[in-house]
Specification:
63 residues, alpha+beta, four-stranded antiparallel β-sheet, 4 strands, globular
Length: 63
């Protein structure tokens, strides 16, 4: 199992997640995904779903 994953949504780099205590910590690749910066997710797929919610407008990028 990898310790680092690149998260892409709609062919756009959202960020990377790095294995950390308790899960994977998100580091944003662009300002659009700053709301996720530093959040810890259980797995990379969960982080990808959160990034997708930003793109689809379900999660405010200013949150």
């Amino acid at each position: 199992m990898s310790d680092t994953y690149i998260i892409e949504v709609s062919s756009q780099a959202a960020g990377i997640v790095v294995r950390d205590r308790g899960g994977f910590r998100f580091f944003a690749a662009s300002h659009r995904f700053n709301a996720l910066e530093g959040q810890v997710f259980r797995n990379a797929r969960e982080a990808e779903r959160a990034a997708l919610r930003i793109v689809t407008g379900e999660l405010s990028a200013a949150a």
